Amino acid sequence: MQQRYLPLGLAVIVYIGMQACAPGSTADAASVRAVKDRKNAPAFTLKDATGKAATLAEYKGKVVLLNFWATWCGPCKIEIPWFIEFEQKYKDKGFAVLGVAMDEEGWDIVKPYITDKKVNYRVLLGDDSTAQLYGGVDSLPTTFLIDKTGKIAAVHVGLVSKSEYDKDITTLLGITSDK
Predict the structure, then answer these.
(1) In what order do the strands lie in the sheet with 122-125?
(2) Running DSSP on this structure, what letter comes out for residue 159?
(3) Distance from C-alpha of 158 to C-alpha of 90, rounded to nearest angstrom
(4) Residues 135, 156: one domain?
(5) 145 with 152: CB under 8 angstroms?
């Protein structure tokens, strides 16, 4: 009789474990830090797809979603359409997405990818030194939400839900989300 319930018990344990690791779960979800707990986002200068130098300082006064990603990263491929949508939806409200591609092959692989995916936000080519500025980006995707004063307000490591990003963005912009 006891063996009959063993599969059910295992199923419940697996389900609970999966929920704890699910995107956007409370175990993974980072919330926007209080203003007093925010640290300055490290400055950088990187080249974009056109070869133009870009700095984080150019975006002061805007909420910035700074996403470290790669073309081979499965969760990154899920997030990119969300970021395209957020760029379109919030760009006129003081928001910008910056993608930092971490592909070792460089622009040879990144440019065709962003063209194919119709990425509408600025993509920069990063390297290990850029990742080290942000505490050693060990997992992709890693996303930093930077407030209008240039301070890191939230950090998401790995895939989190689209609604979690939307909530954080609208909080930092001071607007109500229209889901």
Answers:
(1) 39-40, 151-157, 142-146, 63-69, 95-101, 122-125
(2) -
(3) 23
(4) yes
(5) yes
Work out the number of other CB atoms within 10 angstroms of the CB of residue 11: 10
Using the structure block, give the residue that is written with the tokens 């150019």: 58
Strand-pair partners of 68? 100, 142
Q: Coil, helix or strand for 18?
A: helix
Is 76 catalytic? The answer is yes
Tell me which of 76, 114, 145, 160 is the catalytic residue. Answer: 76
> How many Å apart are CA 39 and CA 150, to the nearest integer?
9
Residues 165 and 111 in one domain: yes
Same domain for 20 and 95, yes or no, is no
Please report whether residue 178 resides in a domain: no
My answer on whether 12 and 90 are in the same domain is no
Q: What is the pLDDT of residues 137-161, one digit of tens each?
A: 999 999 999 999 999 999 999 999 9
Catalytic residue, chosen from 41, 63, 65, 73, is: 73
pTM for this model (two decimals): 0.81
Write out pLDDT tens, residues 115-126: 999 999 999 999
Q: Which helix (H) or strand (E) holds 94?
A: none
